[in-house]
């Protein structure tokens, strides 16, 4: 009697959260998946500048780096260039720790979350994300795994296989000609998409500094 052909286990799919999970704001959580396009301008004086649009090409966010700053710093702005959050790297941090504050604040009570590499030596980036109220940091609230050179990463809920967002490379003739990196992000329902964009900006910076490709 022929043996049945083993069926491989399905790959982890996107997680549909039952309730909105607003890290930055409830206005960035939708009951349906959100597809965003991200363009990194790679030939500019101020490194780390991004533009984020929806599928219709409408600008949703902008990211700007601060020049002449003691801290490596990025600001996530809305389309009208109002600051949403400020991303600040901790100086002399072995794990490349970043702190993310509401608006342009640096006050502890405005801290939303922190991000750090899971280990000092990595071939591909693995980041652990801790919300501000997770002071013990025994288990991460989110984790990011991916390779910036391949423009591919996955965001997981906690220390689990449940995927809440994906990033993948998108090559266009314009991106090759005009020195821009283009990639797409899919954010699953009820997940804060401003939060996901902030994580991708930090992933970009950590990969650039550490060479974790």
Automatic annotation (TrEMBL):
InterPro entries: LOR, LOR_sf, Tubby-like_C. Gene3D superfamilies: LURP1-related (2.40.160.200). Belongs to the LOR family. This is Protein LURP-one-related 15.
